[in-house]
């Protein structure tokens, strides 16, 4: 994760927390290479203590390879540790909404089936998120001109594994 992405991840963490999405674990995995290891302290300074920054050892098996991922990928897991989304470039750029939307879906929907760790008090938070998403759709939806009323919906682009 580059330094800009790291600081944007911190901004996203704060935004989601302010919207009521709490108890989410964030982990940044730094590259094994020497140049990345030298920049580790800069990466760590780009985020708060609420985001763990993990430095791989050069001798260990590469975490990204083990998870079938690449640099700048986002792997989003549910509360039960099941992979819900694996977003690669360009979908992983935090200037887009894909990562944020994927986190919200993993948080609010039982995409991979029921999970015994679901928090009992998330209904209100998730109801607000769903309502806001519907309002956003309504804003961008074309108004019928009286002749033909076609329903258009936005499709989220997601990589699901």
From TrEMBL:
GO MF term list: selenium binding
Extent of Basic residues compositional bias: 148-161
GO biological process: selenium compound metabolic process
UniProtKB keywords: Glycoprotein, Secreted, Selenocysteine, Signal
Any one GO CC term of the record: extracellular region
Selenoprotein P N-terminal domain mapped to chain residues: 1-161
Superkingdom of origin organism: Eukaryota
Compartments, record wording: Secreted
Disordered: annotated segments: 141-161
Chief site of localization: secreted
The keyword Amino-acid biosynthesis belongs to this UniProt entry's keyword annotation: no
Keyword Glycoprotein included in the entry's annotation: yes
Protein name: SEPP1 protein
Protein's organism: Nyctiprogne leucopyga
Organism lineage string: Eukaryota, Metazoa, Chordata, Craniata, Vertebrata
């Amino acid at each position: 994760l580059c330094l800009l992405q790291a600081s944007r991840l911190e901004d996203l963490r704060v935004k989601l927390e302010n919207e009521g999405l709490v108890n989410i674990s964030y982990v940044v995995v730094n590259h094994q290479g020497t140049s990345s290891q030298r920049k580790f302290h800069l990466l760590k300074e780009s985020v708060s203590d609420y985001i763990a920054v993990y430095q791989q050892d050069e001798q260990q098996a590469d975490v990204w390879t083990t998870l079938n991922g690449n640099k700048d990928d986002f792997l989003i897991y549910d509360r039960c540790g099941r992979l819900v989304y694996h977003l690669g470039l360009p979908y992983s750029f935090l200037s887009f909404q894909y990562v944020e939307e994927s986190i919200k879906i993993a948080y609010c929907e039982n995409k991979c089936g029921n999970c015994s760790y679901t928090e009992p008090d998330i209904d209100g938070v998730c109801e607000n998120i769903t309502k806001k998403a519907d309002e956003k759709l309504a804003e961008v939806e074309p108004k019928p001109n009286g002749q033909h009323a076609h329903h258009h919906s936005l499709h989220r682009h997601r990589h699901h594994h």
